[in-house]
User: Which sequence fits this backbone?
C-alpha cells in the first residue's frame, strides 16, 4: 500500500518491515480518543482561520461519521495501515477528498499519539477507580458484619494478639484508599495536553493549544514541546500505582489462600469463585486469588518494560516509544480483570468465625494483656513481660492455656494477681479494651469504617 508519508522515499517498504513497524493491531484501541482529538484539532484550525470554518465543519462531520461507523461495526480497521492515526486520516481522505488532507496541518503523529494515550489512560483510571470503590464497598460490608469476630492477629505468621476479622479487612481498605489517592494524583499530572507540540518544536501556524486542551477536558497544556512529545511519565506513574495496587491485592490473595486451606479454614470461598481439580474429587481451589497473586508479576513486568525502554532515549520522539502501549494496556486490563473477580470473591466469601475463635484460643495471644495487667497494678513493663513469659513457658510444659491456670498458680508468680486477671486475659475483653485510635476494638473499627465511607462519599 502507498504510504501517506511517501515523499522523500517512494514509501515502498518490505513486507516484514511493515509488519514489524505497524502498531494498528494494538493502538486501534484508541480510535475513539484519536477521532475525538482530531475533531478538536479541526475545530481549532477552523476557529483560528488556518482552514475555513466550512472545511472544519466538513472534517468534523467526516470524523463523526468514521466514529459512528467504527462503533456500529460498519467500518473495520485496515490492518495494512501503519497505525490508528494513519487509518483514520486515510478513511477521512477517501471519504472527503482533498479537504481530508488538511486535518494534519499543524500537527504530528508525535503529539497526536501522546494526546490519544493520555485521553485513553484517563478513561482507564476512571474505570479502575470505580472498581476499587466497588471493592472498598464489599470490604466495608464484610467488615461491618464481622467487626466483633475474634481471630488471631499475626506477626511473622505466628499468632500474636487478638484482632477482629473486621479490623483485619479494614487494613486492606486503608491500602485501597491510598491506591485511589495515587491514581487521582497520577491523573492530575496526566491531564495536561500535549497536542500542539507538533513534531517536537511547536509550529509556525497561529494555533490555540488551550482551545484544544479545554475542549478535550485537559486542565493545562504541556509547557515544553520537546517534553510534550517525549514524556511518558504518565504511563510509568500509572503502572507504578497499579503495581502497588497489585501488590496489595497479592498480599490479600495470599491471605485468602491461607485462610481457605484446611490448616486455617477461616473463610469459605463461594463455589462460584473457586475451581475443582481434574483428578482430586475433594478439591476446591482458590484459583482467583492465586491468579491475582500471579498476575502481579506481570504488571510489575509491564512497568519495568516501559522504564527500561525509556531510560536511554534522547529527546524527542523515538520509535521505541511505540512500545509504551502494549505494556500500559496490558497493565490496565490485567488490573481491571483482577479487581473485577476480587470484588465478587470478597462479596461472596463466608468467614468461619468458629474456626477463627478456636485459633485465637491457642497460641497465647493474650500474653501481652497478662503483662499489661501487672503493669496496671504498678509493675514496670519489662518485669511484667518477663513474668508473663515464664507463665507461658510453664503453660506450654503443662499443655495448658492461660485461662486454665488457677488464681493460686498465678499468685505463685506474683502477688499482684487477683480474680480480675481472668477478665484481663479474656479474649473478648482483650479486643474490647484496645480502644486506641486505629485499634481493634469494635468502636475503633467502626470509626475506621466511617472514615472509609466518608472518603468514598
Ligand atoms: N505508532 C506511533 C507510536 O505509537 C505513532 C507515532 C509515530 N510517529 C512517528 N514519527 N513515526 O508511537
Assistant:
Amino acid at each position: 500500500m502507498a504510504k501517506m508519508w511517501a515523499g522523500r522515499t517512494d514509501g515502498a517498504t518490505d513486507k516484514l518491515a511493515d509488519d514489524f513497524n505497524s502498531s494498528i493491531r494494538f493502538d486501534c484501541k484508541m480510535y475513539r480518543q484519536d477521532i475525538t482529538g482530531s475533531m478538536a484539532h479541526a475545530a481549532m484550525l477552523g476557529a483560528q482561520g488556518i482552514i475555513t470554518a466550512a472545511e472544519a465543519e466538513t472534517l468534523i462531520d467526516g470524523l463523526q461519521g468514521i466514529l459512528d461507523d467504527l462503533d456500529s461495526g460498519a467500518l473495520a480497521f485496515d490492518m495494512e495501515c501503519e497505525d490508528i492515526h494513519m487509518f483514520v486520516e486515510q478513511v477521512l481522505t477517501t471519504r472527503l477528498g482533498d479537504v481530508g488532507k488538511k486535518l494534519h496541518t499543524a500537527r504530528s503523529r508525535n503529539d497526536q499519539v501522546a494526546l490519544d494515550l493520555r485521553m485513553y489512560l484517563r478513561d482507564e483510571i476512571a474505570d479502575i477507580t470505580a472498581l476499587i470503590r466497588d471493592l472498598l464497598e464489599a470490604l466495608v460490608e464484610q467488615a461491618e458484619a464481622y467487626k466483633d469476630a475474634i481471630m488471631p492477629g499475626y506477626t511473622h505468621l505466628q499468632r500474636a494478639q487478638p484482632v477482629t476479622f473486621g479490623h483485619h479487612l479494614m487494613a486492606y481498605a486503608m491500602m485501597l484508599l491510598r491506591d485511589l489517592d495515587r491514581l487521582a494524583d497520577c491523573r492530575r499530572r496526566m491531564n495536561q495536553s500535549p497536542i500542539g507540540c507538533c513534531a517536537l518544536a511547536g509550529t509556525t501556524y497561529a494555533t490555540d493549544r488551550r482551545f484544544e486542551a479545554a475542549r478535550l477536558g485537559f486542565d493545562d497544556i504541556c509547557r515544553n514541546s520537546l517534553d510534550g512529545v517525549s514524556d511518558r511519565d504518565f504511563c510509568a506513574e500509572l503502572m507504578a500505582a497499579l503495581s502497588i495496587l497489585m501488590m496489595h491485592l497479592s498480599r490479600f490473595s495470599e491471605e485468602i489462600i491461607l485462610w481457605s486451606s484446611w490448616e486455617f479454614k477461616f473463610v469459605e470461598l463461594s463455589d462460584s469463585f473457586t475451581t475443582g481439580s481434574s483428578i482430586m474429587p475433594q478439591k476446591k481451589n482458590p484459583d482467583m486469588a492465586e491468579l491475582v497473586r500471579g498476575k502481579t508479576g506481570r504488571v510489575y513486568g509491564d512497568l519495568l518494560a516501559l522504564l527500561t525502554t525509556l531510560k536511554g532515549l534522547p529527546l524527542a520522539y523515538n520509535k521505541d516509544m511505540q512500545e509504551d502501549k502494549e505494556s500500559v494496556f496490558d497493565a490496565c486490563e490485567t488490573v481491571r480483570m483482577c479487581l473485577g473477580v476480587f470484588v465478587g470473591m470478597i462479596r461472596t466469601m463466608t468467614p468461619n468465625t468458629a474456626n477463627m475463635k478456636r485459633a485465637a484460643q491457642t497460641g497465647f495471644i493474650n500474653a501481652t494483656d497478662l503483662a499489661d495487667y501487672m503493669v496496671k497494678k504498678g509493675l514496670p513493663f519489662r518485669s511484667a513481660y518477663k513474668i508473663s513469659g515464664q507463665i507461658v513457658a510453664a503453660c506450654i510444659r503443662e499443655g495448658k492455656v492461660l485461662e486454665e491456670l488457677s488464681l493460686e498458680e498465678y499468685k505463685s508468680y506474683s502477688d499482684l494477681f487477683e480474680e480480675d486477671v481472668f477478665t484481663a486475659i479474656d479474649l473478648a475483653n482483650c479486643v474490647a479494651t484496645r480502644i486506641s485510635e486505629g485499634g481493634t476494638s469494635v468502636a475503633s473499627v467502626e470509626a475506621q469504617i466511617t472514615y472509609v465511607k466518608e472518603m468514598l462519599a
